[in-house]
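Thread amino acids onto this structure.
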């Protein structure tokens, strides 16, 4: 079910993912050195004539092509340094079938133009393909892929875990959730991430690389502050229940198909599955305020309220799921007004912060 419903808000409007993915953009910028290191290692071995690269869970908006540009730049620079000619590129942008691929395709002519201008007519060529499908299933022919990248997508589960009947009033693992809820989420993540690794291991050639960034959990405890964006969503939904806008039983049957693993959980699954060597695992935080306090100039926004930024970011990734579950009656504007108010109250006491896990792996 989730695979048919899940997609980020389409287009380029005010509530679109394209316009509300600055946190994810900062996450990509922070992971860039690890992606670059992996590409440099890959290029230092024998390169095929055509390098096959995929970005899994590319969504739609500027971030989709930023990752690809960075990868191409690093390959080009490394080949130049090694005095080799750069390969051709076959690039796959993957997401679920409901993703707004058309918005990415519209940016492609300008992307190709820029490549030609910056790198010359002889460079590449580079061919970009849209690839609809779930990354929990096979996406590519056997032994064909050289480099797989995925940012902020693998914490999305293939489905809402079974056994969450006792998570009433919550939408994810919260402070008040019984331990069965955490166990159900962990079990689903173990199943999904393991399937992801074994599926990719058939497609990535021996010696091929994979770099993945996941929104994770900073402690081994089932509950950490990484649940806060989902607690703010639960608070806002509960407000709508109190106001009679949505039914309580509808809220009780709604849970996010997301899981934020801790590093130990991720490492254990990679080890148990066994197809990839874990070259590097790094963690870093992205403070919501970093977006407009100048940590990354490119990302400074006109919008000065972190509460608004986080409310719009959560809306962009959850609106289709919420509307599907609660129906149009949910009044999404009202819901995210409440979200902004709860976020503002939270941020007046504590700082909002995403904890990220980057994993760099090599196919055995
Ligand atoms: C938060 S967005 C991240 C997008 C982009 N990588 C970025 O960093 O801005 C997560 C994306 O993962 C996609 N996704 C979730 N589950 C997926 C699956 N099973 N297969 C392919 N894509 C999936 C979602 O549709 C969504 O576009």
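Threaded sequence (364 positions):
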């Amino acid at each position: 079910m989730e695979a048919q419903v899940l997609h980020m808000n389409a287009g380029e409007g005010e509530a679109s993912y394209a316009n509300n993915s600055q946190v994810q953009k900062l996450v990509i910028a922070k992971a860039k050195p690890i992606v670059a290191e992996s590409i440099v290692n890959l290029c230092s071995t024998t390169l095929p004539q055509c390098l096959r690269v995929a970005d899994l869970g590319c969504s739609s908006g500027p971030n989709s092509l930023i990752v690809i540009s960075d990868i191409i730049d690093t390959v080009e620079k490394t080949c130049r340094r090694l005095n080799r000619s750069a390969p051709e590129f076959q690039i796959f942008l993957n997401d679920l079938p409901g993703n707004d691929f058309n918005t990415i395709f519209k940016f492609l002519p300008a992307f190709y133009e820029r490549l030609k201008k910056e790198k010359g007519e002889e460079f590449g060529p580079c061919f970009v393909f849209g690839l609809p499908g779930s990354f929990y299933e096979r996406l590519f022919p056997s032994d064909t892929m050289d480099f797989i990248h995925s940012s902020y997508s693998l914490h999305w589960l293939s489905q809402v875990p079974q056994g969450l009947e006792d998570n009433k009033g919550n939408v994810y693992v919260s402070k008040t959730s019984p331990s069965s809820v955490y166990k159900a989420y962990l079990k689903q993540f173990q199943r999904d991430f393991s399937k992801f690794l074994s599926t990719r291991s058939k497609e990535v050639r021996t010696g091929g690389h994979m770099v993945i960034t996941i929104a994770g959990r900073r402690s081994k405890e089932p509950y950490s502050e990484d649940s806060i964006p989902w607690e703010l969503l639960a608070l806002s939904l509960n407000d709508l229940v109190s106001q009679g806008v949505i039914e309580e039983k509808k809220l009780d049957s709604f849970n996010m198909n997301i899981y934020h693993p801790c590093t130990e959980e991720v490492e254990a699954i990679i080890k148990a599955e066994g197809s990839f060597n874990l070259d590097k695992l790094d963690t870093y935080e992205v403070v919501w305020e970093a977006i407009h306090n100048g940590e990354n100039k490119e990302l400074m926004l006109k919008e000065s309220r972190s509460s608004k930024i986080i409310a719009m970011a959560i809306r962009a990734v959850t609106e289709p799921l919420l509307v599907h579950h609660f129906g149009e009656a949910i009044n999404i504007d009202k819901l995210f007004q409440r979200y902004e108010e709860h976020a503002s109250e939270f941020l007046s006491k504590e700082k909002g912060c995403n904890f990220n896990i980057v994993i760099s792996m090599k196919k055995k």
